[in-house]
Specification:
It contains 18 helices and seven strands. It is α+β, with helices and mostly antiparallel strands and 380 residues long. The protein has a five-stranded mixed β-sheet. The longest helix is centred in the first third of the chain and has 34 residues.
């Protein structure tokens, strides 16, 4: 991919004051393939953010390319507004059904709180965190509102392993997609901590969305969730780095002591360091110098951050050669130790999905599981 295209997309992701309008205009003059800008920008979910940046800079963009960028922005703005309206409708419906603890995250909520303009961030789907005990009632609400449960099916015809932490709903008439989650996982079967509503609910705060006050999450756990999500998916989208940078920009007085305390408690210390360093290096996010030095002190963190930065566009989703299996490297030391315990080596549904053995041979899954853990380097 052309370096000019990558540089322009990164300029669109950078926080205010880190790339001035003149620099953006100069980058636009160097771009020869605007089709490539649009293609890669869409892959990284950056077209709405890029359009806003280019429009503000006064850059000279070929008319056809600018029309396509504006069309992408307008489609996204409509998507944001419909997502916001649907989110509010569902939260009211949950409350009427006796579900008091339901909290949205990412998506339009992040656009409104971190970006300051919810239409300038990619809308995505509607994500709502609930309690496991409320799952059946919440699913009933979704079905009543015209949604269909679309979790992938396992070999037995039942919903696959993701049923243990989320329900994926789609509504055919308007294309709305909603995911209900009751468990947040860093590396799926390897991460044994139960990060759910018990962890998140004490960190709620009131936020305003589309003129209505709803429950949201405070900046501390929002930052951890963003770093957790980006790391889990190998930081394959520039959007996820931009999210962390915009959140840091909109919260200059962040209590880093509290953030690091919550990270240690949840086992998210490594992914916090990765996400913050990437936001600093790629998107120019300002970080407390003492915190920055602490995050830069570990060689594995520096190595992973540098690798993502260098291969974000040409080889997204890869990890440095010779690195500890990625899903192990993400874990803090206590969780790595737990990984070696007999509890973590006990076979689960994912191991049984690799090889379908008859019940008399189930003991072989204890041999299959450690091999699968070592070979599976992907976090997805």
């Amino acid at each position: 991919m052309d370096q000019e295209v990558a540089a322009l997309l990164v300029a669109g992701a950078r926080v205010k004051g880190k790339t001035d309008d003149r620099a953006v205009r100069e980058l636009c003059e160097k771009v020869h393939d605007w089709d490539e800008v649009l293609r890669v920008g869409e892959e990284h979910s950056m077209l709405p953010t890029l359009f806003v940046r280019l429009a503000k800079s006064g850059a000279e963009v070929p008319p056809e390319a600018m029309e396509r960028l504006e069309a992408a922005y307008r489609r996204n703005a409509f998507h944001c507004m419909t997502n916001g309206a649907e989110l509010i409708t569902l939260l009211h419906a949950f409350r009427s059904a006796g579900i008091e603890q339901a909290v949205p995250f990412k998506g339009v909520v992040l656009g409104a709180t971190a970006y300051g303009d919810w239409t300038s961030r990619h809308a995505g789907d509607v994500d709502i965190l609930i309690n496991l005990r409320d799952r059946e009632r919440a699913e009933a609400v979704m079905l009543y509102n015209g949604y269909e449960l679309r979790n992938p099916l396992g070999p037995d015809g039942n919903p696959a392993a993701c049923r243990f932490y989320e329900s994926h709903f789609e509504r055919e008439r308007d294309g709305m997609v909603v995911e209900l989650r009751w468990h947040l996982d860093l590396a799926q079967p390897r991460f044994t901590r139960h990060l759910g509503m018990d962890w998140l609910w004490p960190h709620r705060q009131k936020i305003t969305l589309a003129g209505e006050e709803i429950e949201g999450l405070d900046v501390n756990v929002t930052l951890l969730l963003l770093c957790m999500h980006g790391s889990k998916h190998l930081w394959t989208r520039l959007l996820w780095i931009c999210d962390v940078a915009r959140l840091l920009e909109s919260n200059p007085n962040l209590d880093w002591g509290m953030v690091k305390y919550e990270a240690r408690k949840a086992g998210l210390g490594h992914v916090l360091a990765w996400g913050v360093l990437l936001a600093h290096r790629v998107a120019g996010a300002e970080v407390n110098p003492k915190v920055l030095r602490r995050f830069q002190a570990e060689s594995a963190t520096r190595r992973m951050t540098r690798h993502v930065e260098e291969h974000l566009f040409d080889a997204p989703g890869t990890v440095p050669e010779g690195m500890t299996p990625y899903t192990i490297a993400m874990l803090d030391w206590k969780d790595r130790a737990r990984l070696l315990s007999m509890d973590m080596l006990r076979p689960n549904q994912r191991d049984r999905a690799v090889v379908n053995l008859p019940k008399p041979l189930y003991g072989l899954y204890y041999l299959i599981r450690p091999i699968r853990l070592l070979l599976d380097r992907s976090a997805r």
